[in-house]
Design goal:
The protein has 330 residues and is an alpha/beta fold. 38% of the residues lie in helices and 17% in strands. Strand 2 and strand 3 form a beta hairpin. It binds ligand PBG.
Amino acid sequence: MSYPVTRLRRLRKNATIRKMIRETEVNRDDLIMPYFVCPGEHVRNPIRSMPGNFQLSIDLLVGEVNDLVTQTGIDKILLFGIPETKDEDGSVACRPDAIVPTAIRALKSAVPDVLIIADVCNCEYTTHGHCGTIVDGDVNNDLTVKTLTEQSLTLAKAGADFIAPSDMMDGRVGAIRRALDENGFENTPILAYSAKYASGFYGPFREAAESAPKFGDRNTYQMDPANSLEALREVEQDLAEGADLVMVKPALSYLDIISRVKEAFNIPVVAYNVSGEFSMVKAAGANGWIDEERLIKEILTSIKRAGADLIITYHAKEFVLSEMRKGNRV
Ligand code: PBG
């Protein structure tokens, strides 16, 4: 049947009809809010390139997360740490008194209902800013897997609800899974950054986490933005090694990857709407070039429509607050 019998505009006629047939709706349960925790007390350093985001000391982080939960009902966060001191291989992050495990213990006692996903990587903790141990000018895979495994155990012991390795070393999911199982954490799930691309969209994050590489780039471990078949292999391997959830990152330039992963594997997919994607919206919004609230909703909807079950986004809190203000279901 086609025009004039069929008129697709009939189902766009008014708001009620549009709502009736709407396929995708983002709500608070889909969203994960990232935070950056730093040493000290009463510290709230604005992150210049990410308006509205801060490096927070633990005391203020606890207050922020409590506000998040009570004001928006968002109950999932992702934690990144900025350590007091860095070292050659990221061992500083493996100590029980490291910044993130300490923050997790504080959050667990003050805001027990919040689900804490702990990012596992070395780039915030190494003097050179690479995600692992350097041998002959490149990140050595197997040595790095050792520190990541140790860091994961520290985080699990502190009470992390999910361990989320973001380093892109081969075999790290399997190694972390084994270590967790051997130490009584067989019920702690792994969210693997599986298809993580070597992306220019991480720029603002590296200011936020003070984790930019001091030499070279991350092209020998993160994926080439030109590839998609490789993304499926990465996901397949992480699942075989025991990943519970897989992630595609960044989100917006990689909606096709989200969609392919979702179709190929019968599992929940997480998408990371990364710092550069956030900052572009903020910059254009501040200039009055776009309608910021409208774009945020469109962006999050597109990520979910592509196949993401969960979205990590710096827009999480403001999105839910703005939908609540408008009286929309969220
Ligand atoms: C750590 C890590 C990065 C991001 C998340 N975990 C940065 C990187 O790989 O350089 C980026 C997140 C963002 O841009 O919002 N490896």
